[in-house]
Amino acid sequence: MAFFEVKNIKKQFGKTEVLKGIDFSMEKGQVLSIIGSSGSGKTTLLRCLNFLETPDMGTIAINGETIFDSIKHKNLKDNELRERRLRFGLVFQSFNLFPQYTVMENITLAPILQLKEKKLEKEEYKHRVEEIQTNAKVLLDRVNLTEKCGFYPCELSGGQQQRVAIARALALSPDILCFDEPTSALDPELTGEVLHVIKELKSADSTMIIVTHEMEFAKNVSDEVIFMANGVIEEQGTPKEVFEHPQSPLTQAFLNKSMETF
Questions:
Q1: Under 8 Å between Cβ of 41 and 18
Q2: Residue 262: what pLDDT?
Q3: Contact (CB, 8 A) for 224 and 26
Q4: Where does the chain have alpha helices with state H?
Q5: Which of 86, 103, 126, 197 is deepest in the core (most CB within 10 A)?
Q6: Does the model's pTM come out above 0.85?
Q7: Closest CA to 215 of 238, 177, 174, 243
């Protein structure tokens, strides 16, 4: 049984069918890159997996546990959605850091809020907060930003802000870490530092889904690549299969247009 399984995910907005039946699976520690032209459904798929959108049809399972079934979960309550979102960490295009909080506060905010809901005894709460702060320092070290702990987002470069966003997503120990075009808002000279951090996360056995327009990066970091077109998976395979021996004319045409990024 695969660690992560997605079956027949469909989503439409009004009369527009954006996802027309998406199926794929992943093993723990794998990296999956999703590529395709704008409007192909990549970001909508990622939003459905993170429950920022609710699929109209299909199932999603993690480690054998079905966390979404369109027949059983038509109208999820807010607390149920939040519980499912915690299984995923999402790194957005535009960082989405809280400008009024320091780097450390951005990383620890969600875990501490989650802790408050448990209504622990004072000493236990204090101990757990200290653990959260210690973990945040470890994460900052992983993204090479230890010295920026007390800085505010406005004092950081775009690449540094995105690395803070990665640390924040990791702070809740998600089963799957998702990236939505993680370098699209960065200047070219800052792109490399973010891609380097993502590569290092792969070596730590993180299970990751990356929507990206960086073809060379997808080729080098991925275990599997999905090419989406018109709301379906047009082609799927290893990086070598998809990038070097594409079978679909649509994949071939897309890659030919993207050759300048190789």
A1: yes
A2: 47
A3: yes
A4: 42-49, 78-85, 103-116, 122-142, 158-170, 188-203, 215-221, 239, 249-257
A5: 103
A6: yes
A7: 243
pLDDT of 227-253, one tens digit each? 999 999 999 999 999 999 999 999 999
Q: Are strands 224-229 and 31-35 parallel, antiparallel or unpaired?
A: parallel
**Residue 74 scores a pLDDT above 90:** no
Report whether 116 contacts 78 (CB < 8 A). Answer: no
Q: How many Å apart are CA 216 and CA 78, to the nearest integer? A: 39
Residue type, 116: K
Rounded distance between C-alpha atoms, residue 43 and residue 96, angstroms: 16
For residue 60, the Cα-to-chain-centroid distance in whole angstroms is 15
DSSP-derived letter for residue 148 is G
Count Cβ atoms below 10 Å from residue 51 Cβ, excluding itself: 23
- Whole-angstrom CA distances from 176 to 16, 48, 89, 112 are 29, 14, 6, 21
CA separation, residue 66 to residues 20, 58, 60, 166 (Å):
21, 11, 6, 26
- Would you place residue 260 in the very low, low, confident or very high pLDDT band (cuts 50, 70, 90)? low
Neighbour order of strands in the sheet with 57-62: 16-26, 4-13, 57-62, 65-69
- What is the arithmetic mean of pLDDT over 41-55? 94
DSSP-derived letter for residue 47 is H
Nearest-CA neighbor of 157 among 138, 171, 143? 143
> How far, in Å, CA of 100 to CA of 112, rounded?
17
